[in-house]
Amino acid sequence: MDVYLPIANLSVNGLWIVALGAVTGVLSGLFGVGGGFLTTPLLIFYGIPPTVAAASASTQVTGASVSGVVAHSKRKGVDYRMGMVMVGGGVIGAGIGALLFRFFRSIGQIDVVINALYVVLLGSIGLLMAKEGLQVLRGTAGKQAARRRHHPLVANLPWRWRFYGSGLYISPLAPAIVGVVVGILTMLMGVGGGFILVPAMLYILGMSANVVVGTSLYNILFVTIATTIMHSLTTRAVDIVLVALLLIGSVTGAQFGSQLAGRAKPEILRLVLAAIVLAIAFRMLLGLFYQPDEIYTIYAL
C-alpha cells in the first residue's frame, strides 16, 4: 500500500509506517521513552528528510504518550506535581529549540546537527544504562540502587517543595531545568525526550522507580504538543499523512507496552533498551561519514 507524503515529497509503504508506529507505541508504554528516539532515525534511514522526520515524529509521540499516561495513571504511577513542573520547563525549552532549529536550518546544517546529537546522546545514555543493567544482573549494584537519592547538586538548590508521588523534598528548579533540556531536544531531534528524562529522573532527581515511566510520559505528552504547535508555526515540516500513519499503530502499541511493563524484570528491560539505543547510535555514526547527495539542505521560501 503506497502512500504519498506531501511535505516529504515521497511515496512510502503505508503498512511499514504503521508497523513502525506500533513499535514506537510499545516502547513508549514499556520504557516511558516516547519512542521518538527510534522513529526519527528509522524514518531517516527510509529516505525521509531529517527535518520532516524530526518534526513529524514529535507529533506522533503525542498520541503514543496519551495512551501510555492513561494506562500508568490507573496504577497510580504518575507524579502529577513533578510532571507539571517539568512541563513548564519543557515548554520554555521547546521555544529555545525552535530558535535553534531555524538557525541551523538557515545555514543549511540542521541535518548534520540532528545526526550528531543522536550519536552523542544515544551513545552516552546507552552505555550508562548497559553498565547499570549488567551490574544489577551480577548482583553488584543492589545495595547502591536501594540507597539511591537525588544528586548532591540538587540538594543545594533553594525553595524546596514536597513531591509526594515521588517521595522527594527538593527544589522545583531541578526538574524545571531537566524539563528545559528535554524541551530543546524534543524540538531539535523529534524525540519525546524520555531516553534523557528517565535516566535524569532516576540518577539526578532520585525519583521512585514506580512513578518514573508514567511521569515521563506525562511530561512527554505536553511537551510534544507544544513542539508540534511550534513546528507547525515556524518550520512547517510536519507531514500530517506521515503522522496519521504512525498514530494508527502507536496508540494500540502503547497499551500493549504498558501491560508488559508490569510483568517484565526492570533490569532486563534496561538492557534491552540499552542495546536498542546503542544500535541506533552506531548506525547514525556511520551515517555521518557517508557522502551525502547534498552538502546543504535547500529550503525554498
Automatic annotation (TrEMBL):
Q: Where in the cell is it found?
A: Cell membrane; Membrane
**InterPro entries for this protein:** TM_pro_TauE-like, TSUP/Inactive_protease-like
- Cite the entry's keywords alphabetically: Cell membrane, Membrane, Transmembrane, Transmembrane helix
Q: How does it sit in the membrane?
A: Multi-pass membrane protein
GO cellular component terms, alphabetically, are:
plasma membrane
Pfam families (alphabetical) = TauE
Q: Where the protein is mainly located, per its record?
A: membrane
**TM ranges:** 15-38, 83-104, 110-130, 168-196, 202-225, 237-256, 268-290
User: What does the similarity note say?
Assistant: Belongs to the 4-toluene sulfonate uptake permease (TSUP) (TC 2.A.102) family.
Could you identify this protein by its name? Probable membrane transporter protein
Biological source species: Qipengyuania vulgaris
